[in-house]
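User: Show me an example of a complex going from sequences to structure tokens.

Assistant: Sure. Here are the input components:
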Amino acid sequence: MVLAADSMSLETRHLGFTISPHEECGVEEAVRLIEASGGESVVLTLGPIEAAEQLRDAMAIGIDRAIHLQTDGGEWDPESTAAAIVDAVGAEESASGPFDLIFFGNESADAGGFQVGLRVARGLGRPAVTGVKKVTVEGTSVRCEQEVDGGRDVYVVPMPAVVTVKEGLNLPRYPSVPGRMRAGRKPVAVSAPARTQARLELERLVVPAGQGRRAELLGSGPSAAPAVVEMMRRIGVA
Amino acid sequence: MSNLPAHARAVVIGCGIVGNSVAYHLCRLGWRDVVLLDKGPLPNPGGSTGHASNFIYLVDHSKEMTALTVESVNQYKEMGVFTQSGGVEVARTKERMQELTRRMASAAAWGIEPVSLVSPAVVKDLVPFINETIILGGFYTPGVGVVDSLRAGTIMRDRAQASGALTVAAKTEVLGIDVKDGHVRCVRTTAGDIEADTVVITCGVWSPRVARMAGARIPLTPAVHQMIDVGPVPRFAGAKGDIEVPIVRDMDTNMYERQAGGDLEIGSYAHRPILYDPEDIPPIERAALSPTEFPFTQPDFELQMQHALELVPEIVGDERVGVKYAINGILSLTPDGMPVLGESPDVKGLWSAAAVWVKEGPGTGKALAEWMVHGESEIDLHSSDIARFHEHQKTRSHVRARAAEGFNKTYGIVHPSEQWASNRNVRLAPFHGRERELGAMFFEAAGWERPMWYESNAPLLEEFGDRVNRRTAEWESRWWSPLINAEHLAMRERAGLFDLSAFTIFDITGPGALGAVQAVTLRQMDVPAGRNVYTPVLSPSGGFKSDLTIMRLGDEHFRVVTGGAAGMSDKKWFADHLPADGTAQLFDMTSAMTTIGLWGPRARDILAAATADDVSNEGFKFGACRTIDVDTVRVLASRISYVGDLGWELYVPIDQGLKLWDMLWEAGRPFGMAACGIGVYGTTGRLEKCYRAHGNELETEYNVVEAGMQAPRVKSEDFVGREAHLRHREEAPAAVLCTLTVDDHKSKSGEKRYMLGREPILRRDGAPVVDRKGRRSYVTSAGAGPSVGKHILMSYLPPEHATLGGELSVQYMGERYPVTVAVVGSTPLFDPENTRIRS
Amino acid sequence: MVLVLVEHADGKAIDPSLQTLTAARSFGEAVHGLLIGSSVDLSAHGVAVAHVAQHASLDSFAPDAWAAIIVQLADRLKARAIFAAGTDRGNEVMARVAARMQLPLATNCTAVATGSPVTLTRQRWGGSLLEESALHSPRPLVTVAPHTVAIALYPAATTVEEFTPQLTEQELAVKVLERVSNKGGGVSLAEAKVVVSGGRGVGSKEGFAIIEDLASLLGGAVGCSRVVTSAGWRPHSDQVGQTGTKVSPELYIACGISGATQHMAGCRGAKRILAINADAEAPIMQNADYAVVGDLKEIVPAISAELRKSRAVHAPLPGPLPEGERG
């Protein structure tokens, strides 16, 4: 990880952007649900102009249209993000009725706030289930399985609902070439929401110092096995 | 972890396919204590080799490139990393089908077999998933294949290490290269310093950055090549190997499609040129995939998806087949599309092997190693020589402009005379304005704008009528005008004025000057001051390094005049052979002097009208050079001719060039003098005289005897290539340079066709003509001979075919035309007694 | 005072919650614990009052109800700040609290300093990057990243106070209906004392046989990298990483794993890491305690064989396994 000169963001010049793993599964799940039972799927993101490419990626695998809440590239805190999404979803729903399901990634890959989906659910007055790795629509309810240590907790909540999902929910498909070509023609609604002053205010980023691990070489090839087992005995796991 | 030695015979920087090859071949040729470094990990340090598509097509219009490719394939095969798949280059247009017939000709000229032109139905048989309805045909090369370039690199490293001659250090970054007295001395790395007098930069897209550490320049630019991988392809399910179906090149869309195991790889050279600076290449830890795999930019690939869908709809249109991987891969582009090989003209001992692709990697490694160890390579590398670049050609602007322009020509139909559009008007003759007024059609040479012909000479077409040969076929009319032939006739009948500003001129002076020029020239240079001498410059093995003219201006003063194209490498060659004691110096006079040529039967009358000095045949003999006054301009006049007529090359300081031009123009008008373009100088005039040209007839792969240029005696002074030359004089030549004329130009359609050069010479029955060294006969130069009324070809022929009146054929655009051997050796077709130039 | 949500299982507070108690003490105020369902002993962790919430409907996890309880209790106690562990549940409940209170929330903090504003350090990218932030809030809401704060014992006289929260039907709408246990009932990845993990270097689905063998010999769990789950060689539940499971075993054995950031975020909590890799320069080697260089396909079976051999010597019962059973 390399920081930008002002230590306020990562140096991303050479990295490019992708949809994060959790969100990618959310997109895939939406496409599968619509493929199975009909309806319309919409992808929404809040981000800079470059994020349009990720919206195209989502539409390439089957999402019908996109909403782009465009920012100037600066980072938005979770409260502002959630507020902007609540406004956008509200406007959308007042025109065409509520979304049965709104998927979020369980937490963002970068800032890892674990809260935008739940704040939006609260803002919209909807039940929310988090950390979901299996989704089944059962009539007007949705059955959600949440991974916990040693098993899965099952929730059933009425729709409309908010579900925050985790990687492992499904294995997202690759977009086909025709899918990519179709994506280029699908509509993207762009707007620029206003940001409120962040109350969790980023001051700087720090790359953590190494954990001080310094590998002791136990050997090369299979002949290292006795040394490995000796180490295991020493630390009490063998 | 460092095991770096403190000293090395050579340090090779960069473990891509090129670095591994160079290191391996250096060790094979007997060098020991070679060190190979890379800042990245092995076996894939993160350069362009790591994401190369790794397929190899064999046929290129460039002989040099084809030779390097064929040699590389042989090495890949020997290492067991070559999988032959075949390849078919498909045509969607008629123009492309014609281009494919040119490819057939190049294949025959360079001896690539088998190849065939095939119908859409046959393409479909070869590549069952192709949509054959949108193609007109294809060029099929069964010998095309795919290599494992990373594995090849490992094998070469391992072999060299096993021999004990090579030390390899990965994750070792070069921090600096120390140069002392113009010579590389030490490589400083993160693992310590290595003293070495020889350093090879094989760093691909990083090469300019590393070269700069030594104060040298490697003119290339990193550029994007987009590639996607789609799969899983149902048809390829259960594929056993990497590739089982021939690779498709969709030439008209600048794309390729190849099987890669269960997937299909689709690559493109069609998108907008996306260039980076070497500084933009991220270090490994900052890169998303690898330093040379940049994030894919989808908008640049939209049209390419459409094109791929058209050609391979079965796979690309399959909704189950996904885009699994998409990159903007970074590769190296140079301003002229050729690699950058050889010792840097900036720093002694610093070698470059850059802008080399996987397909020519091992062959290039071998050639460079030969060059380093033996002083020259078996394959003539003059088109790739790092020393070829003029100063302006090394600038960032030039490199980027030409690389951008060249990128979309990767699969393009490029006419042999095609001119660059970008970065023109870089070097202008002092009389450039006059030339514009005369309607000059400018061609570029070494950055100079040179008139190829003048539109204002249109009245000559009428004057010479049927004697001016015309062309109707579009291809050979392109970048050509019948005005060239008309100007030629005007010169032969009266006189012509030529802009020769593109000459490269350098002076060798000092007490050691004579020895310095003697050491690199075939001919005797110890002539009286005031003489000019045309001489071949030989390579160590007696081939042609160059040919040029040297004027002796004083006891310790020689002026070397050579062409623009070879000028910079000639300059390095002379500089490299200056005496070590510093008794001779080289000064580049190119931008100090300009040159005007004046030739034709009335040339003396015109010059005499402009000067009071004696320019009579007695007063100014052929082969003499001296100063004359033309009004207020002091002119160095040299009586010599490359067009076979009476006349002079006139050298003046560049600031007085315009005045000289105007004086000569005024003097010439009463005599019907015409401004003549380089079309006459470089093609028609010289071909009628059977004068050879460097890069065409004269290459290191042919020797003086074969070229028919041996003198009765060899000077006693030593010179580069002397020993080999003496040997060549003793043996029967394997081939003899001949001049042929075309007997019948009519094609099957009835249209007359005119060869442009590089076509194969075949027997009348179509069988190839091969000499005992395995070299194919091909047309080294082609062009009109207006005064002899023939289309003239030159070609090296084996002795059994080198007979006057011998009947052969030439393959052009898919047809064979009868030709006859008109001259064996160097006797001119026109004015064989040379009375014109001597009278 | 500051209020800390203390998660507990099997009659004990979980370690991340104890770590959170330690972190919360840095505020220099009285620490109150909130236990939901039943009480556990927190007297060694400086808790002045342990509030035990009990309600008929709290037989299973109900995140909105938990959030409601925290809000009610914090309001009643006028808690200056609220803490929870940065576990899945802790983060979820605190996010619901934050949404209800319309206050900012700082998750997965590694350090918190009182003040106005509160200054803190929190994890990004699963801990691969740290963020220093100011939290402007009348009532700071904070979760503490597991295994980043060492538990410091602080004996205190803990008063236990039970209370019954007021919960609406809506607050109980989202509730765990059933717990489906994993089939096979092997050692859970998150809890395992040893995790043997395979990456791209394992080469195939079948290649995991040797990984499974070693894991079962050590009584450990099998893990894998993201490449492996993407390739479909292992189920996603085996994935160790930022988007998979975060593990904290005594020994983490990384076989053929290069050590990408996303993976290291999942195994950073391991006490010791053994890397087995063909590339001596792979990033994992810089982040490991022990390393063996070479082909894991040879090394892993050799370790298993060596274990069996040594057990034949050291453990006479129930009888030695045949030597070199799996070759």
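The lines above are the inputs; the final block is the predicted structure for all three components together. The mean pLDDT of chain A is 94.
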